[in-house]
Amino acid sequence: MTSRVTKAVIPAAGLGTRFLPATKAVPKEMLPLVDKPAIQYVVEEAVGVGLTDILIVTGRNKSSIDDHFDRSPELERHLEAGGKDDELAVIRALAELAEVHTVRQGEARGLGHAVGVARRHIGDEPFAVLLGDDIMDPRVGVLAGMLRAFQERQRAVIALREVPREQISLYGCAAVEVVDGPLVRLEDIVEKPSPADAPSDLAVMGRYVFGPEIFDEIERTPPGKGGEIQLTDAIKRLLGEGEVYGYTFREGRYDVGNKQDYLRATVEVALQREDLGPAFREWLLHRLGRA
Predict the structure, then answer these.
(1) Percent of the chain with pLDDT over 90
(2) Which family does it belong to (predicted)?
(3) DSSP assigned state of 223
């Protein structure tokens, strides 16, 4: 196993039913945050920490994801003819952002199965997994910290964040032992426990770094509820073979498959923009003052 991670897998095959009817014909990962689709922020996060070989695992009716990261000669000619140099530069830079590949999951059999579909592309190399509807503020440095931890420990690292106890049943949950700073060692991990049975308040978030051995554990993991192969269950099996680490953080994550978080993320992105932030902030304060 090489220590430097250059590949990323982005599962993006979900149906996005929480955003119907908007997602009836548009993938949830293509819903915009201001003027970029959500999945572009995920790809940019990966590229920002040196991951330049990106595999997006898609499903039916998700061809717009392929199109978004592909070249568009007709659009480029139109922009060039119209003298829209700034827009042209943005479109060309998008197509050159990374080496983006796509593969279809085929059938919805859970997150573990979606990651397993990437085996042929990843081969025997380590890789990161970034969920396509989880947006991380890159300034918080979660993925960069996880990659450093993986390079030092050469063991799987998963992102963890405390959530209110009553929400823990929405996530995988880990029992841990503190190692150093944000780094912890997993003692156990369970998928969506009830609040009464949860071993902690630490929830598994949408970022992981694995060695290729996770694929064997996925193949050995039996289907659970609904016939789905859970990535959390495969991590539990991996834990039985050696150490697995968690990287804890407190802020900067948005689940854009959730309407409240989608709105929060949109506001945060707009406020950070130099071209939009000052005027938008002024309007927002004025609007809240009238509330």
Answers:
(1) 69
(2) Belongs to the UDPGP type 2 family.
(3) P
CA angle at residue 17 from 38 to 30, to 5 degrees?
Answer: 20
Binned at pLDDT 50, 70 and 90, residue 3 comes out as low
Collapsed DSSP state (helix, strand, coil) of residue 185 = strand
Q: Is 103 exposed, middle or buried (0-12, 13-18, 19+ CB in 10 A)?
A: middle
253 phi/psi in degrees, rounded to 5 = -115, 135
* pLDDT at residue 1 greater than cutoff 70: no
What is this structure's pTM? 0.93
Q: Which tokens go with 22?
A: 């908007």
| Tokens 């150490």, residue located | 243
Q: Which two tokens stand for residue 289?
A: 């003052």
Closest listed residue to residue 1, CA positions, set 133, 122, 111, 118: 122
Pick the CATH number of 7-257 from 3.40.50.10260, 3.30.300.30, 3.90.550.10, 3.40.1280.10: 3.90.550.10
- Residue 246 has φ and ψ, to the nearest 5°, of -120, 145
Rounded to whole angstroms, how far apart are CA atoms 227 and 109? Answer: 7
CA-to-CA separations, 196 to 65, 165, 167, 232, 289, in angstroms, rounded: 40, 9, 11, 19, 41
